[in-house]
Recover the amino acids of this structure.
């Protein structure tokens, strides 16, 4: 995104990994409505929130649950995806993910 006229010439230092930083720079330049991220705990979520200039942050587990609630996938498919991704993203003990999964069952 740094070749665009509406972005910085080089990658800013936000304290995030390069991919997240590049995504934020592009999201800000394009004035997007939402920013999908797998961050929702710890300090990275707060950093992402601080450097985004307007879009709503949408954590991946929330998006999957919303897809199920709106019949874009079944509740079981959403649960399976979240449970498959969880060990790779350290979501197993997340109260956030636990609450979302409980709402899928309601």
């Amino acid at each position: 995104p740094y070749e665009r006229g509406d972005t910085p010439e080089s990658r800013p230092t936000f304290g995030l990994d390069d991919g997240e930083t590049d995504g934020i720079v592009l999201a800000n330049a394009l004035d997007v409505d939402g920013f999908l991220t797998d961050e929702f705990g710890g300090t990275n979520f707060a950093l992402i929130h601080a450097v985004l200039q307007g879009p709503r942050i949408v954590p991946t587990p929330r998006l999957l649950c919303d897809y199920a609630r709106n019949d874009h996938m079944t509740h079981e498919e959403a649960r399976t995806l979240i449970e498959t991704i969880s060990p790779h993203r350290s979501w197993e003990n997340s109260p956030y993910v636990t609450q979302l999964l409980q709402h899928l069952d309601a």
